[in-house]
Amino acid sequence: MAGGIKLWPEGERPRERLLKNGAEGLSDAELLALIIRTGDFSAKVSAIDLGRELLRKFGDLRGLAQASVAEICRIKGTGPAKAASIKAALELAGRCSSESLSSGDRYTAPSQIFQHFQNRFKNRKKEHVVALLLDGKNRIIREVPISEGSLNQSIIHPREVFNPAVRDSAAAIILVHNHPTGDPTPSREDLELTRRLKEAGELMGIRVLDHVIIGDKNYVSLADKGYL
């Protein structure tokens, strides 16, 4: 339907339909329209038209989540503000669908780590390394970002991992990182990093409980594999 959404009959506007019947009945393009809010007035394109174009360009919501801000901004009618809103909404959706590990929660199994991080990491194009700091009863103190690497590698020094652990009086740490390829099989560098961190932790009296590598649909625990 041509023209801005405000000119549409009230019963056909996405916001009014959501308020009346809930979000479940709206299409992906209509939900995007509520995030985008306005279309391209110069081209007489509505927010829904713009949502459809974004989905056409990137394939689906997952493809849109994987797109960079610069890539989204290349779509006529979008800009940094719209791109930021889209990225924020899709990131929140990913975090909401994950089972959260919060401060004070007790760590019991690497599957908890996978459930916590899988949706956050699945659209990342670079490796992201995170350390979970734990107390003497294996309760989560906090999560610390350690490194954002290139597509194929992250370079980490033990001090970057253990400095926050010392400051927070952590008794143990769990290292977590993603493989953007989706395959969590540990690389030679992963194993070498784990060995170095284990040795450094033994000297400092801080246990390295695990190094969990997150893939697209599964994970590898190096503790389960016998490397720790």
Automatic annotation (TrEMBL):
Recorded hits in Pfam families, A to Z, give: RadC, UPF0758_N
The domain of life for this entry's organism is Bacteria
Keyword line: Hydrolase, Metal-binding, Metalloprotease, Protease, Zinc
Q: In what residue span(s) does the MPN domain sit?
A: 106-228
Q: Which GO terms describe its molecular function?
A: metal ion binding; metallopeptidase activity
Q: Name one GO biological process term.
A: proteolysis
What InterPro entries does the database record attribute to this sequence? MPN, RadC_JAB, RuvA_2-like, UPF0758, UPF0758_N
Task: Tell me yes or no: is Phosphoprotein among this UniProt entry's keywords.
Answer: no
The UniProt family comment states: Belongs to the UPF0758 family.
* Name by which UniProt lists this protein: DNA repair protein RadC
